[in-house]
């Protein structure tokens, strides 16, 4: 039989919410690691008292009871895993994994049993539901009634806030069943009561989140923050981690307390408590306990009388009471020698600390990211200036953090740190190109070969060639569709001085035409065909061939590791300088070898580009044919509409006659024969139809 069993995607029930993580069973005990917080629950094999297997909402669950009364629940198992778990418990823990199903009768009366940290409501021998008493925030009593109130769970969409139990009266004298019930609950409930004196008090400490100055009273089981407006009581069981971080100015210290669940102020949640101390501030501290109690309780970690820097005293007391290690920055050192990096997160500037097992950003908002929850990191160029870069972190849950405006001098140190921690770098595949992109930080005045500039020039040449090809093609298309002769003819007809007068002109118009000189015809200049503006800028096609690299870039990619090995510890900027010098000093014959390779790569690119353009043109022709077909359909509908309008106009002959009628006296004698023939046609029309009235002719002359 295997010595360990591991299960992924197991859910632990904590304060009414299901936290996913990984469960590992070994000879030594049971270990559960929360995927969200990274918190580890370790149950020693010697502490296990009972194991129960039962059917739950998420499949099957495992409930473990310890000898000191604690209960741990894990859900998400498959039914087929029972035999494997049962055999493991027998072999390594000497426990029978009992099968107990919950009662689903739906009755609301039964028996309450208190066992360890659990309140169990049973019907017969089967439990209906269980309440972990650590979830109870308040317990109140009434006549034959007990009310339990629970801590609000921010992670759950719906939270159970209150349960009421009716306790029937008994005939026993001297025992009140309601009070006995309440005492059993309060003895195990998480009800914070500030009874007795504080162990010590730190007054007027500067707190960054929540902002203000607070007195911190240290009690045996909780921490009391007392401010002018707000009070917070923080149980030590909610403290996840402690951090002690030096400020970049080397004169101040941050003390960070990570909390889960967070403290609340209205709708605001504070997952971190951040205190700021000056290194120069000292304190003499006396604990409110006798020396024997101090020695027995803290086992030499604290003494009754202590003195030293304020931040040291606070961190030392918290470490002893919370019983957790204090995390400090590791061996990382930035460009300025500080153990942090100045950057911006969202809208605020702060400090990013690379730790041994994660990153922490202070202070607004505080962010802690563990290495084991990081999917990858990315080094990106700054969006506003080339003097800085961005550091992006994406977690396995898909959350992205972008720390921007990091000075370029910090890049080498941070990149080496990330490499040493073996974090996945998103652009590692483009590592060489990415490193070269930071060559632009070097001063342009220096007389050296600029690798980044060479690459940009090469890409610019190829871009211009592609632009010329595309512009030639687009010009031919516009010439085919543009007919300047037709357009000019249309405009000339509109302003033609020889055009015949319209039928609506009368005597007054003809007289005016004799007196006034004829207006000059407007000269219409030939209009140049306009190029069609692209409707929208197309994004880069991922299927398009990639541009070839220059001879220098091909040589640099092949020689980079050799340069690094010849000059260990060389920075990125110095490496590019050295490469430029080596390339300059290289003989012409060797350079020609790399030029040939670059030429081969360029030919392959041009060949691939022609095939890509050919495929693209086929797609364009198909779309043109489709467009022409749609235009024909629209035109056919328009012709039908025109035919119907003509038929409707023929039904009103009187109106058509008045528009085309010309009287004889208005026709000049020197007009051409074509005008006479038109006149005869109009006479024939007049004979065939009734003559217009005098009113109609008068309106025509007007």
Automatic annotation (TrEMBL):
Ranges annotated as biased composition (Low complexity): 497-507, 644-660, 687-702
Residues annotated as domain HMG box: 545-613
Keyword Aminoacyl-tRNA synthetase attributed: no
Record localization: Nucleus, Nucleolus; Nucleus; Chromosome
Transmembrane segments: none
Signal peptide: none
UniProt GO BP: DNA repair; DNA replication; regulation of chromatin organization
Biased composition (Basic and acidic residues): 532-544, 609-620, 631-642
Main location: nucleus
Protein name: FACT complex subunit SSRP1
Lineage of producing organism: Eukaryota, Metazoa, Chordata, Craniata, Vertebrata
